[in-house]
Structures are given as C-alpha cells and as structure tokens.
Amino acid sequence: MTNLTQGQAAIRAAAPTVKLLIGGKFVESTTTEWREVINPATQEVLARVPFATVAEVDAAVAAGKEAFKTWRKTAIGTRARIFLKYQQLIRENMKELAAILTAEQGKTLADAEGDIFRGLEVVEHAAGIGNLQLGELANNVAGGVDTYTVLQPLGVCAGITPFNFPAMIPLWMFPMAIATGNTFLLKPSEQDPMVTMRLVELALEAGIPPGVLNVVHGGETVVNAICDHPDIKAVSFVGSTRVGTHVYNRATLAGKRAQCMMGAKNHAIVLPDANKEQTLNNLAGAAFGAAGQRCMALSVVIMVGEAQNWIPELVAKAKTLKISAGVEAGTDVGPLISCAARERVDSLIAQGASDGAKLELDGRNPAVAGYEKGNFVGPTVFSGVKPGMAVYDHEVFGPVLALMSAATLDEAIEMINANPNGNGTALFTQSGAAARRFQEDIDVGQVGINVPIPVPVPMFSFTGSRASKLGDLGPYGKQVVMFYTQTKTITERWFDDSTVSTGVNTTITL
Ligand code: NAD
Fold first, then answer.
1. Is the pLDDT of residue 361 over 90?
2. Given a cut of 70, is residue 17 above it in pLDDT?
3. Per the database record, which ranges form the Aldehyde dehydrogenase domain (predicted)?
C-alpha cells in the first residue's frame, strides 16, 4: 500500500470484503491479513479477501462436524432435491455469475459461462445421487447368510481450489460430497473467490442446511490447518503439482483420504492424414483459449512428418485472435490472472528464445486499446522446441504454444510418455489404427481423438497419470462416490425355529 496515493488507498479500503461462511452465516473474518481481488484487465480492486485465522478454520470444521450428525441421516430424496433446485438457480443466474467470473478472473464471458456450465453438469449429476450411492448384495453367501454393502458418508470433507476455474472446480467438489451425506469445508482460490461465493450463496438458497457447507479463505496457513485437522476426513485438491504434492503428503500423514489433481504439460500429436483445417482450428483454440490458463490447455504440439509444413498456417490462425478484456465482444484471448503471472510468462518467452527455440510469433506487450494496464500476453508460438528448454520443462500457464517434430507416431508417443506430466493429450488423425495405438500406449489420464480438450463429463471421472495426480480416485462421477464414502460390509443371518443348532464351531467358516 505504500506506493499508493491517498485516494487510491481510500478506494481500496472501501472495497467490499469477502465473507467466511460458518454454520450457515456469512461472517467477517477477524484476521489482520488481507489481499485484494483485482480485475486483471483493468487493475480495479473489486474486493478484499481475508486470510482466515486457524481459530476460524476450527470454528468452520466444528460447524461441519455438528451438522453432520443430522445431515448423514437425511433422506436421499431430500438431499437430491436440493441439487435439483440448485441447478435451476445456477441456470437462472448464469449471466450474473459469468460477469463476476470474468471481472475477477479475466476469461471471456462466453468461456466464463462454459466454466459455470461444466460445474452445473456435476450439480445435475449430484441430483441423481439416489442412483449412484448404491451398495451391493449377495444372497446366500453361506446357508441362510446374505452379505451386503452400504456406502456411508465420511464426515467433514474439505476442498482446496485453484484460480483458473473458480466455478467449475468448487462445483466438482462440494455438490457430490454433500449429496453423499458429508459436510464440507471449501477453501477457494484467494485470487478470484467472488464467483465461488455467489455460487455458495445460491447453494444455501437451494436449501443446503446451516453447517453443511462452510467456507474459509486464505493460503498456506489455512491449507495446512485443513491438512492437519483431526476432524476433517478427506481432502480434495486441484492446483499446481508443487502445492498438491505437499497437500497429499501432509493430509495423508494425518490419516486423511486425499485426491490431488495437479499440473500439466499437455501434448497433441498431429499426423499428416489429419483434417488440416479442423486440426489447426482446434489447436489454436486449445492452446490460446482462456489465455492458456487451463490445466487441459494444449501447450505442446508434435507435428509428425509432412504435418510440419502446417506451421505457417497455424501461426497465421494465432495472429487472427483478438486480445482484449473478457467483457469485450469478440475477444478470444483475455488477460492473465495477475501482473506476477504476466511477468513470469514474459520471462519464460525470453528464456525460450535464448534457449534456442525459434520464436515464430511473439505475444509479449500487445497493444490493447482501452486496457493498457491489463495483464495481457498475446498468442505466442515457438518451433524447434526440445526437452531441456525452459519453455518445454515448465508448465507456462499462458498463451504459449511449443511446436516439436517427430518422424513417426511411435516416436511422438515416446516423447509424451517421457514428460513427467500425464494430465491430457490429443491425437489428430483420420486413421482408426493410429488412434487405437495411441489410446493403448499413451500414459496420460485424459485422451482425445480429434478432441482437443477432452474433459470428461460427470458420468465419468476426471483423472490423470504420473505427476498430474496423486490419490487413486478422481473428482466427480462414480469414483468420487467411492472417495466420499466408506464401504461397510454387513454379513447377516437370521435364526428361525427351523434352524438346526450345530454347536460351538472354532474353525473359520460361516
Ligand atoms: P496453486 O497450486 O497455486 O493454488 C491452488 C490452491 O492452493 C489455492 O487455493 C491456493 O490458495 C493454495 N496454495 C497456494 N500456495 C500454497 C502453499 N504454499 N501451501 C498451501 N496451499 C497453497 O494453483 P493455481 O495457480 O491456483 O492453479 C493453477 C494450477 O492448477 C496449474 O498447475 C494447473 O495445471 C492446475 N490445475 C489442475 C487441474 C487438474 O484437474 N489437474 C485443474 C485446474 C488447474
């Protein structure tokens, strides 16, 4: 604050505060540590977000623990109907939610609606929980004996979410956790918590009872308190590999279940038999959409054989994309989330050039009329990229596309499997045999065949291989029902008058 004029400081102090949600009430944090939520296209201060105290985390967990006593026994139909109402409220408020999301995160309004919609689909799925949380029964496992399972909720579960999908990723977590009978503590990204909080308000309006959903804000201290808290039974994390690995280690050491979906370096392979126009359109959209700030962004493309001749056309497509604020009609590429993110991406571009990659298109310092203070980096394309170059070895998380080349499909598959990350990948081809080889041999969680960003819909689960994921079970879908429940196996026999006593038996048998 020291470099601000008095007027600027006064505007910032007057910004609304983001509240905590504890026991059904939105409350002001008592912390002394705050940060600003800033519009990345204009630098306008939109709000101030607290870094909650450990006592506030404790209070939120205690509220969840208390609410669990009744919520865990609430009828399936009652739980499901809340999510039926919730999906309706999200639809009715879509435009307002998208406007908040774009203001604090930067992506275009259309992409913000996509972010919300992909979360909404999980809410719809949660409304069908009656068909998802079913146990199994085997009749007559021994004479007169049946065995069955029940999937019981765990207790208080927690979720820690990243900045890049502030609607979708919280909605990956709390609807399914709550629908399965748990209570939930959410820790949204401190960079853009406002749309998440509006979604939380709507969840309460839909009928989620006090204490069933709680929210705290903050960074490392709050996350560590969540990992260590003895009354939290499971932690879901989505974010970078560095933080996710820390969360996984710390939470599991404290005896919790943990699922951590982490960083990426997603490669596409382009075979020369691919449909050229469709492929190049898909590549440009997947590399530069959301300014490359998607965990499923295609940031590396391996051109095989003759497909290497398509580079000029790909660069030409990248040049046509409009860079501006997400609220401006026709914008393709919005700003990066923060000044620090922009500086980091700019310096990785400089490093890529000095490492010897060929800078085909340099997106640094674009002129964006009306938004001169925005954190903009335009589409950037390198060719001749190799492992060992900074632009390949790091997840850039900006609109930077690295082009590599390979002689064959097998060579390209080996290159992808040698990268530490295994989040998403795509193959562009017209050959079914090549596609089958690819899906069999690639060690990556999400695989697209002529589909650039293959994020699974909610009847499946998001997944990941190698450094992109820790924990066995992924978010949403069938896997998350198993993650958020404990399987109890019941073996039962009933005696009636016709049962013949066999006396005391000391061997293991039914
Ligand atoms: P991040 O790891 O910086 O932050 C994620 C969460 O961790 C935030 O809530 C943040 O407050 C918290 N956090 C940050 N630093 C921490 C620390 N030192 N200790 C404890 N907690 C800390 O991630 P981000 O920058 O918000 O998001 C971008 C990253 O998320 C990228 O790496 C992207 O690939 C990844 N991501 C992955 C997926 C997936 O499903 N695999 C989806 C979206 C984003």
1. yes
2. yes
3. 26-490
Sheet holding 446-449, edge to edge: 358-361, 380-383, 400-406, 298-304, 266-270, 424-428, 446-449
Same domain, 229 and 280: no
Instruction: Identify the CATH number of the domain in which residue 96 sits.
Output: 3.40.605.10
Q: Is 295 a catalytic residue?
A: yes
| 239 CA to centre of ligand 1 in angstroms | 3
Ligand 1 mean position to 383 CA, how many Å? 29
35 alpha-carbon distance from chain centroid: 22
- Whether 164 is in the pocket of ligand 1, judged by its Cβ within 6 Å, is yes
- Number of structural domains in the chain: 2
Residue 433 inside a domain? The answer is: yes
Provide the pairing of β-strand 465-466 with 421-422: antiparallel
Domain hosting residue 432, numbered range: 267-419+424-449
> ipTM exceeding 0.90?
yes
Mean pLDDT of the chain: 96
Q: What is the pLDDT of residues 429-471, one digit of tens each?
A: 999 999 999 999 999 999 999 999 999 999 999 999 999 999 9
User: Which of ligand 1's atoms lies nearest the C-alpha of 295?
Assistant: 34
Q: What is the DSSP letter of 323?
A: B
